[in-house]
Task: inverse folding
């Protein structure tokens, strides 16, 4: 587990609106698949948006914790999991620790 | 074929030099003027008889001031060419037409076909505007 | 209520065709996101935290059972089994796919519904008193005017790219149940000394970053000049509203900066010109619409007695049933604020149940309130018990209307990309802290409103107790306000002091209610006591 920050890329799927994370070669719905970015974020965003594989892509800070990739801002942690008040609809429906991880 | 000037008029396009509103002076022969979004269209009212072309700029299509400018010019009797220039996109064409524009000079060329199709979007209209179409309330009450 | 004729139907059908084409062109790349975004917003489609969110319009908060049932079916077919009723009388779905939106809009159009102009820098849904046509204190039903405004504002070509969003509210009684003065334009239907019906027009109210109460711009306007006058109001705004700064772009800023007198002068000048253009629909059109809002066939012999032997039912009658203008009837408010629940949310099954109850017991009509509840406007007193039993079985009979448990909360950071903090978990904690219904009734009318960010969709400025969620160095923090009111005595709440954690503000609110109980005088609500004694006793109790 490291407190060292790195950059990852996130956005939404154009068709479905699903939250997506850039894996280095494609988009995943799971934040733990998010890959550390180099200097080429703008190029990736431009290419992926032009190819309509993503919409509203943006770069965020993240760290690694025991569970994997942890977005630095609470808003993106909510995006990574789902609404804390409807965890039954989230990606961690059976995980009682989900809300703690978000907060 | 995508074009950079589409006119919905039968007369010939004006060849007069287009004077920016800010550059208008007392010298009274100007026949063509360009309005920027912040310009007051009513300032042109004394010139309406001599103007054959008024361009209304849309630097960004989301700046809707040009719609009011066009409406005002037509309401006060301007019958010359009213041309929307700049960030003019197909999806705003039907509204441009309704407020009185009869020519388009888009930054990104569009086809005459697309313009005609856009204008036909609304089989009926709720409001009376300068385009003269009978609004729905008129159809209801004769 | 208003029924679409073939003309209205043609308009929503044309809109479905237009948007379907726009979605196709987005998906094939003809339209970029930058070009598409304002177009989808004008069809109520946002890109939110988890997915697309679709906001469906419920014009002036009125709908029938068939429409309500379709709203429930949409939740099941295209979403995840529930919908959220909003503070503008609309409904939102949180898990929408862009590719499904044309089909959803087609389903809505089939029952005379749409998502037109529920977002974007255009004229939005006109909201109205949710007791319209039923309340005993009504001067005139404001909804025919709201319907006229709906038609006038729909696809208005001059006002599709305003500096910012534009919201209108209209009421028909001295009791303001629609927060009218906190809107860009607020309209009150009034009668002059001769008994003639007219409109009083307020312009320049709003909440958000700079809350303002709308001044009166026109004291009395003939109903047959409403469209022309509003054209003038909107044209002045479209031409002179600020476009340099998104946070200074509402009409309230323009009216404030040039002054109400100058704004009025410009509007009257434009109005005089517009009156020459023949834009006003004829009196026959207003009459045609009014005829569709005539009273349903109330039974003059409907019994007035209510059997109160069931104490839970009696409690609900006392709290959630309002006096109706027709003897033998009552106005039922269905609370969507169960203890510990998500304010304003309803499952598809609950939505369909409410539709059935409207069909069977309320002349086929429902209302959505800006407090995120549902109203059955015309229920026989003799039927109240049957209605209550069915509501109770479905978790819809919480007897907390206007009490502290009747919390207004925006979706907040659990759903909304604009939010700084979550609002729903806080609402749930407050609701649970004050779960005891006798305690709530002892506290009396206490309008508590929570916003997860400064955009104030939770109307926190107008709460007797208001909460504003903020981001304090990446951690959620909550500011506490007292003294806001949305009624005829409209006032804007003031912040009491430094912010709190989520648990901290629940405690602070509880202490505040303690101060009220200790200091109140006969007949005073929380708001009245605060107005009388001021912030100091509350600050002392809270910050110690």
Result:
């Amino acid at each position: 587990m490291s407190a060292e920050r790195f950059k990852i890329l996130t956005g939404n799927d154009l068709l479905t609106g699903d939250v997506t994370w850039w894996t280095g070669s494609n988009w995943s719905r799971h934040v733990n698949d998010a890959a550390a970015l180099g200097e080429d974020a703008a190029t990736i965003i431009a290419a992926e948006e032009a190819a309509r594989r993503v919409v509203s892509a943006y770069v965020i800070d993240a760290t690694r914790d025991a569970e994997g990739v942890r977005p630095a801002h609470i808003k993106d942690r909510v995006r990574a999991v789902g609404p804390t008040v409807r965890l039954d609809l989230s990606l961690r429906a059976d995980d009682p620790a989900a809300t703690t991880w978000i907060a | 074929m995508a074009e950079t000037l589409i006119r919905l008029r039968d007369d010939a396009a004006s060849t007069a030099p287009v004077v920016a509103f800010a550059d208008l002076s007392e010298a009274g022969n100007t026949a063509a003027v360009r309005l920027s979004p912040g310009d007051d269209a009513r300032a042109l009212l004394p010139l309406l008889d001599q103007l054959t072309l008024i361009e209304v700029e849309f630097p960004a299509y989301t700046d809707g001031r040009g719609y009011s400018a066009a409406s005002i010019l037509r309401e006060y009797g301007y019958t010359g060419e009213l041309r929307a220039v700049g960030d003019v996109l197909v999806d705003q064409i039907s509204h441009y037409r309704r407020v009185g524009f009869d020519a388009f000079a888009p930054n990104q060329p569009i086809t005459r076909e697309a313009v005609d199709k856009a204008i036909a979007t609304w089989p009926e209209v709720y409001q009376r505007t300068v385009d003269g179409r009978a609004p729905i309330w008129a159809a209801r009450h004769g | 209520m208003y029924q679409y004729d073939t003309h209205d139907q043609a308009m929503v059908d044309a809109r479905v065709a237009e948007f379907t084409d726009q979605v196709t062109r987005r998906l094939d790349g003809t339209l970029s996101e930058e070009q598409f975004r304002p177009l989808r917003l004008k069809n109520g489609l946002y890109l939110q935290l988890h997915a697309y969110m679709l906001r469906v319009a419920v014009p002036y908060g009125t709908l029938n059972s068939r429409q309500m049932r379709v709203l429930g079916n949409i939740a099941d077919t295209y979403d995840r089994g529930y919908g959220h009723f909003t503070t503008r009388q609309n409904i939102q779905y949180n898990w929408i796919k862009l590719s499904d939106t044309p089909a959803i809009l087609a389903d809505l159009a089939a029952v005379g519904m749409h998502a037109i102009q529920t977002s974007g820098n255009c004229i939005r849904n006109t909201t109205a008193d949710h007791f319209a046509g039923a309340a005993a204190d009504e001067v005139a039903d404001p909804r025919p005017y709201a319907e006229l405004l709906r038609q006038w504002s729909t696809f208005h070509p001059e006002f599709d790219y305003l500096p910012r969003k534009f919201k209108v509210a209209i009421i028909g009684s001295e009791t303001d149940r629609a927060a009218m003065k906190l809107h860009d334009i607020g309209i009150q239907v009034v009668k002059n000394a001769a008994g003639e019906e007219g409109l009083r027009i307020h312009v320049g109210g709003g909440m958000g970053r700079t809350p303002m109460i709308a001044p009166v711009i026109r004291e009395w306007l003939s109903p047959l000049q409403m469209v022309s006058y509003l054209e003038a109001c909107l044209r002045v705004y479209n031409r002179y509203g600020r476009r340099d700064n998104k946070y200074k772009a509402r009409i309230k800023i323009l009216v404030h900066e040039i002054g109400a007198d100058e704004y009025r002068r410009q509007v009257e000048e434009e109005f005089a010109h517009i009156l020459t253009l023949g834009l006003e629909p004829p009196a026959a059109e207003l009459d045609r619409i009014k005829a569709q809002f005539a009273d349903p066939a109330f039974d003059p012999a409907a019994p007035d007695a209510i059997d109160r032997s069931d104490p839970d039912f009696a409690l609900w009658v006392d709290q959630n049933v309002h006096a109706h203008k027709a003897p033998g009837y009552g106005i039922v408010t269905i609370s969507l604020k169960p203890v510990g629940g998500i304010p304003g949310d309803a499952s598809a099954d609950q939505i369909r149940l409410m539709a059935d109850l409207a069909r069977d017991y309320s002349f086929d009509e429902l209302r959505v309130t800006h407090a995120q509840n549902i109203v059955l406007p015309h229920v026989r007193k003799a039927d109240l018990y049957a209605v209550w039993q069915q509501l109770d079985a479905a978790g819809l009979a919480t007897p907390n209307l206007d009490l502290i448990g009747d919390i207004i909360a925006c979706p907040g950071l659990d759903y909304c990309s604009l939010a700084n903090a979550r609002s729903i978990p806080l609402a749930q904690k407050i609701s649970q802290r004050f779960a005891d219904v006798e305690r709530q009734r002892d506290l009396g009318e206490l309008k508590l409103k929570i916003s997860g960010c400064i955009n104030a969709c939770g109307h926190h400025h107008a709460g007797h107790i208001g909460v504003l969620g903020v981001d304090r160095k990446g951690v959620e923090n909550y500011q506490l306000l007292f003294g806001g009111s949305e009624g005829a005595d409209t006032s804007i709440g003031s912040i009491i002091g430094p912010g709190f954690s989520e648990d901290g503000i629940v405690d602070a609110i509880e202490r505040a209610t303690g101060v009220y109980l200790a200091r109140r005088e006969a007949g005073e609500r929380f708001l009245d006591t605060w107005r009388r004694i001021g912030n100091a006793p509350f600050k002392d109790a809270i910050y110690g």
